[in-house]
């Protein structure tokens, strides 16, 4: 039987739990609470406080995921995985509970609704009582929660998280939140009882409490080491993120709320706290073995990032109506990224004990099709490659548009310009071709291929003709077609057929799209056609009587750790085939670059290597 107050009574409501706030919202709207003279103004202020408190945690969450800004000062250098994100999905349950506790207090004591705006004496009393009562009482409560039965029944949930995030502060049982709420009320209630309360005190104390709690859980050291060297007493007055993180690695030390003074007095101060704090504040880089150099597809998808929302980022990207309202904000961030003009580290994970990172070139998809942007984009990609080379990265894999043939020849430009590169530049298209080819059913006699003379199209055509599959290659260039045909074995060349119109494929049910297909192009496909594709962005699913494949992708091995981001529209744990191709290149320890034209003879070799390392078709 579950112990009392160990789970939230509205757990089964999911996101509908916010309807619990509806009565207060209805009362606020009905009473025109935003007007200064409204008797229901307190409802509006409580809801405003609820929003500001949630925004405080979310702001710290954004900060903690700004790896391009703070990766050197990250404390626990592991990624936040899907399991942790799901566990903390309803981290704000405590805000709903405390909203109603505050509403009941204001209902029980009407005088609290008419407090003055500010009283400095009340703030001084509250601060004094926080130090004299809330801090030591929290310390004693926290130590009590670490006793055997209380820990296993209640507090173990909070300690199940190793990589702290601001949202982890809210991962607690109702019993713990009720106890913390009581401690939070002590300083404010005492000031109000003495006639020194104010609206600013109610708001300010709650927001300051949340600010410090979120900071302590942010997993990024924000205090400079020199501060505690210059003012040694400050060590016992403010708990740093490092200080609180130690409690999650050594749960029998560092119990304090915000002031390590009480750990010192109680004999539970971890002796390495300041040494580790100084080390983390100084910052250091952990060199990744592998880097995937990605790019943003469009302004809307730029909001599908951990920095924006780790919850949305942990699910496959979908265009949602409410995101349209955020488009202007995303556009401003896009301009800021242009101004910054650097490659950003956006997330990382571990595989076989090595660090894998994803960097993003701050350019959106449409930039790659602007002729005047070509040199600037190549310069940024080149800078990222040289940076990876200087750091000691083993392999850097280029995402779809970053290796565009017309942009840099599939990465050939950089390898030719810098022949001494130690980092291996990989386009990953060998595995992409293998994934697409494995999707084609056995026994297929004929396919229709667009983008037929591109890097991938060429490799697919040459591979299939060797298997005696007739390939209708859509291309306007006779010269480029003949060049591909000449690469095929003499006995297989007859299986490569040049076509110039979509009508030529009106009886073929296997289409491989390497070039974007408009609804008008798709109408020539017969009913029952399956569209395979390797085009970015993906083609629109226009035909209801046809089926559409996703972009070539593979599922990472089961032993991947710390992965909590979905790559664009792909599912959890699935990455684009070019990303997976770079992973295989790294795991196999291949010495050469993989740039330019695809070696058709290596398609099966790379595929078998991928399966051997635990990657699976998605």
Description:
It catalyses: a long-chain fatty aldehyde + 2 NADPH + O2 + H(+) = a long-chain alkane + formate + 2 NADP(+) + H2O. This is aldehyde oxygenase (deformylating). Keywords: Endoplasmic reticulum, Lyase, Membrane, NADP, Transmembrane, Transmembrane helix. Pfam families: CER1-like_C, FA_hydroxylase. It is found in: Endoplasmic reticulum membrane. The structure is a single chain. By secondary structure, the chain is α/β, with parallel strands linked by helices. The protein folds into four domains: 11-220, no CATH class; 234-284, no CATH class; 290-426 and 566-598 and 607-617, no CATH class; 431-549, NAD(P)-binding Rossmann-like Domain (Rossmann fold), CATH 3.40.50. Helices cover 45% and strands 10% of the residues. The chain has 25 helices and 14 strands. The strands form three sheets. The protein has a six-stranded parallel beta sheet, covered by helices on one side. A five-stranded mixed beta sheet has the order 2-3-1-4-5. Strand 2 and strand 3 (354-364) form a beta hairpin. Helix 1 crosses helix 2 (41-64). It starts with 21 loop residues before the first helix and ends with a strand.
The DSSP helix count reads 25
Mean pLDDT across residues:
95
- Widest sheet: strand ordering: 8-7-6-9-10-11
Shape: elongated
Low-confidence stretches: none
Q: How many strand units? A: 14
Please state the structural category: alpha/beta
Helix content: 40-55%
GO molecular function: aldehyde oxygenase (deformylating) activity; iron ion binding; oxidoreductase activity
Family: Belongs to the sterol desaturase family.
Protein name: aldehyde oxygenase (deformylating)
GO biological process, one term: response to stress
